[in-house]
Specification:
Elements lengths: L1 E7 L2 E8 L4 E5 L10 H7 L4 E5 L17 H15 L4 E6 L1 H12 L4 E7 L16 H24 L10 H24 L4 H5 L5 E6 L9 H10 L3 E4 L5 H4 L1 H17 L31
Helix pairs in contact: 1-9, 2-3, 4-5
């Protein structure tokens, strides 16, 4: 794994790069930390150049200045990372708020995206006007105004299925706690106001797949993926597990992501050389060799 700082407009972004092969940019949601994807990136590094990063103003990146986050700026940051670290084009995966940023990137800078996988974007504005989920972002904003980041964070965690049933890496958890004020004070309004650019996404010159976890059916952050897929005519798929399955069970999540990303990259018949290597020579027929000291029945 290689890490460093990448300079963008009025900020430096901490990033990590693993592996080799087609570029795959992973965009995180609330908390904006590269560490969400560390285990998944390790799993995929044998086939992809996996790029993860701390989003502007979060964790080890700079750019926190107390002003409201703009999704246009987040998309521009992702574009600059792709141009500077991935040769100008990459597959993109985003979860939650990262999926919202991925959809914004795909609509605004299609030239740098070769495929987009948007996992559980909480784009509640695409739901019917009388849907109770439309009140989620205002509820958390009110809690933040009354009790600050910790109060909003506790309620947020209560709404995310599976949280509290597995352990986060200690360093990631500490960084997330330090990002709460930025999340609810600066980033929340931008995520709350998001509406996908349906026309741009419909005309995207690359594949787009929406998806949600099998254990999240019917939840406020899963249902928008179905509605967006329907509106833009994109396929929808079910991932294993919960909203943060990449933390709870990264091997299973990486296997699902590998299949989709590989299909997107090779859809035009482009199979990288690293996927065309000769398999190991088969063992000769006959009984397996005996291991010194082994006991045989």
């Amino acid at each position: 794994m290689r890490s460093g700082m990448f300079e963008v407009d009025h900020a430096e972004l901490y990033h990590e790069i693993r592996g080799g092969g087609p570029a795959l940019l992973l965009i995180s949601g609330a908390g904006g930390d590269a560490g969400y994807y560390s285990a998944v990136a390790d799993e995929l590094a044998d086939a992809f150049t996996v790029i993860t990063y701390d989003r502007r103003g979060n964790s080890r990146s700079t750019g926190r200045n107390g002003t409201p986050m703009r999704l246009a700026q987040q998309a521009a940051d992702a574009r600059e990372l792709v141009e500077g670290l991935a040769g100008g084009r990459a597959l993109v995966f985003g979860n939650s708020g990262g999926a919202i940023i991925g959809l914004t990137l795909a609509a605004s800078y299609p030239e740098v995206v070769s495929g987009l996988i948007a996992h559980e974007p909480p784009a509640v504005n695409v739901l019917p006007a009388d849907d109770p989920a439309r009140g989620f972002f205002p509820e958390l904003a009110a809690l933040y105004a009354e009790g600050g980041g910790p109060a909003a964070g506790r309620r947020f965690a209560q709404t995310v299925r599976g949280e509290g049933t597995y352990r986060w890496p200690d360093d990631l958890w500490q960084r997330f706690l330090a990002n709460q004020e930025h999340l609810f004070g600066s980033e929340w309004p931008g995520f709350a106001a998001f509406r996908p650019d349906e026309a741009a996404l419909k005309s995207a010159p690359f594949p787009i797949v929406l998806g949600a976890g099998a254990e999240d059916r019917g939840l406020y952050y899963a249902r928008p993926s179905v509605e967006i897929a329907r509106r833009i005519g994109a396929p929808w798929t079910e991932f294993p597990g919960i909203h943060m399955e990449f933390l709870r069970n990264p091997v299973a999540f990486a296997a699902a992501l590998r299949t989709l990303a590989t299909h997107m990259h090779t859809g035009g018949g482009r199979v990288p050389e690293l996927w065309e290597v000769s398999p190991p020579a088969p063992r000769p027929a006959g009984p397996a060799p005996r291991t010194p000291g082994a006991r045989w029945p």
